[in-house]
Amino acid sequence: MTPRFAALASHYLLEACFCRPGEGHDKGGVEARGKAVRQQALVPIPVGPTLAVINAALLAQMDARLDTQRDATGQTIGVRFTEEQRLLRAAPLPFAAEATTFATVSPRALVRLEGAVYSVPSRWAGLDLIVRIGATTVTIVGREGTRIQHPRKRFGQRSIDYRHYLAELARKPQAVRQVLPDLLRDLGDPFPAIWDQLHGAHGPREAARLFAKVLGQLETYGAAVMVSALTRALATGTPLLLAVTPARSTPACVALDAVPAPLRDIAVTSGCAADYDGWLLGGAA
Fold first, then answer.
1. How far apart, in Å, are the Cα atoms of 70 and each of 84, 117, 285?
2. pLDDT, tens digit, for every residue of 62-77?
3. What residue ranges do the domains of the chain occupy?
């Protein structure tokens, strides 16, 4: 019994009963039913650009058979299945059909699994993390419980999310230009429009420097705050760097009781820029 099958049996409280080796007639009914399903749904072999597309097509094919009449009373598959559902027990939490393993994050914040490479946040570099490998996805779990999910790749392929490297890109503006198409794809709206505005106004090198500042603020304050601020800036024409600069907080007023008694009667007047102009003119005269 494999570890994942043992986990499945433990999750649903099943007692595994295996056939005898070399005794094909022990499981003839199962083999016959499997052959029927294969001939009905898998001949010819389904093809498609992705496994998700193939699965969707097979599900649509199965659903189309719900109206097929199957018994002498004229009941269809759909009617009989609805009747059967009433007799079924409520299903427990679904079993995660994923293989669990451990992986070490490289200094470049990459995880190598089965010959494929996946990115994680740069702050995870050097950590040993739990990885759950499913049929179509790979989930990497950080120590704080954060989950990073990638589409599962084949040997030699890479799945890189450049949002994981915002802190490094904020310090290296010219690296922004090298990964710009993929970075804008991962960031999504409104960042392509932000780059276009900066590039049109300042040129590629200066735009990369300014865009790196935006990425730094994005890493500091998060997408929820920055996307809203940048979207408003684009709509109102507010300078972008001004929009991403946090507003200064108003200094709190000190209660009179908190001031030492000898200092309470001292009044300090605030300065005014116009006073300096007067002093300069007076000095010139």
1. 15, 49, 109
2. 888 888 777 788 888 8
3. 27-66, 99-160, 165-244
